[in-house]
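Fresh eyes needed here. Have a critical look at this protein's tokenised backbone.
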Amino acid sequence: MDVEHVQSLLREKVTAEVRLFQEGIGRFRVLTPFCFDDGDSLAIVLLKRGEMWRLSDEGHTMMHLTYWLDEGNLRRGTRSTLIENALSAFSVSQSDGVLFIDADESQLGDALFSFVQALLKITDVTYLSQERVRSTFLDDFRSFLSARVLEGRRTFDWHDPKRDPERKYVVDCRINGMAKPIFVFALSNDDKVRDATIGILQFEKWGLPFHSLAIYENQEDVNRKVVARFSDVCEKQFSSLSAGERIERYLAESMDVA
């Protein structure tokens, strides 16, 4: 195999700065000038597979994203959709977090160009605007509950139709099937926490039987005084969805109560 020939194919389609370093039989490290915004280089290896070639990141890109984002949030909601769209746009495949693209020798340069573009596009999930982040959290919140609570036992954006026809006091998710339903609040900022505080107090004033549960996007981002006041009225709180196992256990135990 002519390594110089393969390297020239990659350089022709991408950049003259591409370099190949052999790491074993049929395995090469591909060095490019492209990198993540923190300065880390893209991790790309080139593998000979019979008559075909495979470019792979060997799981490095998704692992790199977990430095800033919870791994679970990359697998659901808006972020997951953005990643899937990027992979589809550049014909890149994924298996257990490993990204790869297969090509024959004549298409190798184009494949590397597409692969680099896909890896860089995927990292855009770390630059969602604050509004997109909020919507992502709500998507993640709903996906989390949908996977753990049967559809017939949950209602998103619930309000009391008799006492509150104008929807002034909305619960992000109402879980029923028990003597006291669980009112679950998704809290992304100070305003949401204040609204939830007012809502719980109003529900108590109406005499509604319920348990209250709050899940923050990131509790540390909310004003401490606002959290303190909310803590006086809310029964159970979790600082973020990263406490997934504990939240799941709490829901299972609470929903098992007749």
User: Anything to note?
Assistant: The chain has two domains: 3-127, 130-255. The mean pLDDT is 88. The first strand starts at residue 19 and ends at 24. Residues 3-127 form a domain with the Yope Regulator; Chain: A, fold (CATH 3.30.1460).
